[in-house]
Amino acid sequence: MTNKDINYEKGLKSIWTESLANNQEPDDKALLNHLKTVHQHNAGFTEKCASTCRDEAGRNSYEWLAEIVPDIDGVRVLDLACGSGPLLKILYDRNKKLRLKGVDMCPEELALAKARLPDNVVDLFELKAQNLTAIDDNSIDVVLCHWALTLMNPITPVLNEIRRVLSSGGLFATLVNGPMDAAPGYSDVYNLIYEYVQAKLPKYGEIDLGDPRIRSTGSLKNILSEAFPDANVNIETSVVTMKGPVAEVAETAAGFFYASFILPSEVHKTMLLKLSDLLTISKQNRHFKSQGRFSMPISRLVVRK
Ligand SMILES: C[S@@+](CC[C@H](N)C(=O)[O-])C[C@H]1O[C@@H](n2cnc3c(N)ncnc32)[C@H](O)[C@@H]1O
Asked: To test ligand 1's pocket by mutation, which of 151, 159, 240, 257 has the most ligand atoms within 8 angstroms of CB?
């Protein structure tokens, strides 16, 4: 896939979207191709939304997940699918003596992570989560995965690799979408975006990125319990919210949904206007722009090996 395949006027195309358009089930290669295509041209987009949305205590989802890491010098942490590196940066700023590693399959995301983290302090590897060749057995105390497990298919090799690299008594903690109804208005936002997406690609949604079992916290818990049979899996759910000028809130929120990237630019603009209407909490007056609010449900799952 090259730059010429990205056509914002017509919306992003990949082998995965072509499979959907042809009523075929996309395979693993198509999924990787699609994810790489999206991230190559929009590196850092997850962070843009996730770092702005905060819970009632003022924490964003990176900060909430980072709390799992004990603040003890020398603790070895792997951020699986680290993207542009916001979680590693939080951990590095908190304790310079943590031993941090990050893995991602997308070089454009890793370049952003490299730029923000001091050289030779954090080890970053371009690898797939299914095959963590650079990470030794039993060499990690905490594996973190922020908003990426949902995208991984096949998932079993990923969980096998996590189990392999974790030391005995080590922790695996992942942040995923929470139950839709946990955040007010979230399902309306989801439905609006998918309505536009399905007008272009009717199968998008029925078929989505990653293993469908990871999208529900209940079935994810079952998969984790199978992969870590002797471990206790703990789930907590929370809600994070962003507020601000509604046009900005709508753009940032929509940008968080992979599905929105397939919309042709004119359709995308129309969708944003509708989304702005949905998210408005106060109308423009002489002194203020219209304000908006977007809330997302999140779940944190923690497994102790
Ligand atoms: C939604 S982004 C999250 C990035 C980062 N964890 C964050 O929350 O800001 C998903 C990331 O997962 C990476 N990714 C998806 N599937 C992967 C796989 N099988 N192996 C490694 N990285 C993968 C993508 O390249 C992308 O950087």
From this structure: 151
pTM score, whole prediction: 0.94
Mean pLDDT of successive 10-residue stretches along the chain, which has 305 residues? 50 92 93 93 91 97 98 97 98 96 97 92 96 97 97 96 96 96 96 96 92 89 91 94 96 94 94 96 80 97 92
Pocket test for ligand 1, best of 46, 65, 78 (most atoms within 8 A of CB): 46
**Under CATH, which number does the domain 3-304 receive?**
3.40.50.150
User: How many whole angstroms from 33 Cα to the centroid of ligand 1?
Assistant: 13
What totals of helices (H) and strands (E) does the chain contain, helices first? 11, 8
CA distance linking residue 68 with residue 132, whole number of Å: 22
Instruction: Give the nearest ligand 1 atom to 129 CA.
Output: 20
Q: Which residues of 260-293 are buried (b: 16+ CB within 10 A; e: fewer)?
A: bbbbbeebbeebbeebbebbbeeeeeeeeebbbb
